[in-house]
Specification:
Length: 190
């Protein structure tokens, strides 16, 4: 099967999942692929929490908006995609040829923009890799970020960007696919 069709053209956003757990080894494999996606200055600011246990779900569900709780409850895994607000501390390891640690540390607005933008990119890489590995995704932003951060990142260093349910989608729950905009509606070649 054509990989582009698998990860884009035929992929769907799932709101309901089969009761089939994701093996931890698959989550490790998922990360080991997504980590190679490019980020600014190889900053790699994303941090991932894969919530798979009943205890973890019990902590997560109160942070989710009421309209999204059933979706999260049905997923065998919900990934919290966060960013490390002090990602620059690892820049000597991630980009040894230049002193990006000092650059980011001395310019908090640039560091924040870099962390937000690149953690979102890494979350997108996660979804593409998940689909390539046979998983289905259900990304969402309907959650109380402050509550989630208090529950999972109490020290305040990590900040939630978005969450994404992962698992094996329940195809019976799908509705007709919504349209997308055409090239001429969104793109310009200059």
């Amino acid at each position: 099967m054509n990989l582009l069709k698998t990860v884009f053209d035929e992929a769907r956003t799932f709101t309901s999942f089969l009761e089939k757990p994701i093996k931890p080894a698959l989550l490790h494999e998922l990360y080991n692929h997504l980590k190679w996606g490019p980020t600014s200055a190889n900053s790699c600011p994303a941090r991932f929490v894969f919530v798979t246990s009943p205890a973890g779900r019990d902590r997560l569900l109160p942070c989710i908006s009421e309209t999204n709780r059933a979706k999260v409850a049905s997923a065998p895994c919900t990934a919290i995609i966060a960013y490390d607000s002090e990602f620059f501390e690892l820049m000597p390891k991630l980009y040894p040829p230049a002193d990006f640690k000092t650059i980011f540390k001395s310019n908090p607005p640039v560091a924040l923009a870099t962390a937000r933008r690149n953690s979102a990119l890494q979350g997108a890489y996660m979804m593409i890799a998940a689909r390539a590995l046979g998983l289905d995704c259900g990304p969402m932003s309907g959650f109380d970020a402050a509550a989630l951060e208090m529950e999972f990142f109490a020290d305040g260093r990590y900040k939630a960007n978005f969450i994404c349910n992962l698992g094996y989608g329940n195809k019976a729950s799908l509705h007709l696919r919504n349209p997308r905009l055409d090239f001429d509606e969104t793109c310009e070649i200059v």
